[in-house]
Write a structure and sequence with these properties.
single chain
Length: 234
């Protein structure tokens, strides 16, 4: 729906305080506008009233989608981003944000379609494969998720999002050695242990989680997140 903004000129009313005015020119302390000024104001108002709204283009739609997101309205944001993509099918920012919104709403088929479009437009951006794989995983399509992660890694072997998301999926499946192989490419040894601890904690395996957090702190005593997690569990 198109939103129309109406500009209404405001007219200043000058209050006469502490000065002498002829009563015929000053009613209730308000100085009237002289005829010439009134004509000028009316002319300006006519220009405002007759002005056309600027045309809605792809960037305008994208900005409207950003505003909707800031107002915690992902459904409206999706509509605006979709209109943006109609205007410009190669608008990568709109495709990215639309994929994020669909993912937040857990509308997996739409999210998957959007991330595939994003990958096509960006000619295989690794971050697109990472987000696609994560959506496949949450939709219960693990084989598709693994294929997406591997394609992203093939495109960019050092893409942190692909490596970490793939590693965490492997860890949740109990494939710890394979998970560590993926994580250690882009994370420090302490961060690898911390992430494994987080997976164990999510799975309810508290003792294993605490053991991993302790190993993380042994490797890096300044890893505050690991200390925080460990303290909370004890």
């Amino acid at each position: 729906m198109r939103v129309r903004f109406l500009l209404i000129p405001t007219f200043a009313m000058v209050l006469c305080l502490g000065c002498q005015q002829d009563k015929k020119d000053d009613v209730n302390g308000i100085r009237p506008v002289n005829p010439d000024t009134a004509k000028e104001m009316n002319a300006n108002r006519s220009q405002f009233d007759s002005a056309q709204d600027p045309p809605l283009n792809a960037d305008t739609r994208y900005a409207a989608g950003q505003l909707a997101e800031s107002q915690n309205n992902p459904q409206l944001a999706i509509k605006q981003y979709a209109e943006c993509v109609k205007e410009n099918p190669n608008h990568t920012l709109a495709l990215y944000r639309m994929g994020v919104c669909y993912s937040e709403l857990k509308q997996w088929p739409q999210a998957i379609e959007t991330w595939n479009n994003y990958i096509k437009v960006t000619k295989g951006a690794a971050v697109g494969y990472s987000n696609l794989g994560f959506c496949y995983e949450l939709a219960g399509q693990r084989d598709d998720a693994e294929n997406a992660y591997k394609k992203g890694i093939q495109k960019d072997p050092y893409n942190q999002a692909c490596r970490v998301n793939y590693g965490l999926m492997l860890a949740r499946s109990g494939k710890i050695s394979e998970a560590m192989n993926q994580l250690q490419v882009v994370l420090s040894p302490a961060e690898v242990r911390y992430n494994l601890g987080s997976v164990y904690e999510q799975l309810g395996r508290k003792e294993q989680a605490k053991a991993e957090y302790k190993k993380a702190l042994e490797l890096d005593p300044n890893l505050v997140d690991a200390q925080t997690k460990l303290t909370a569990m004890q």
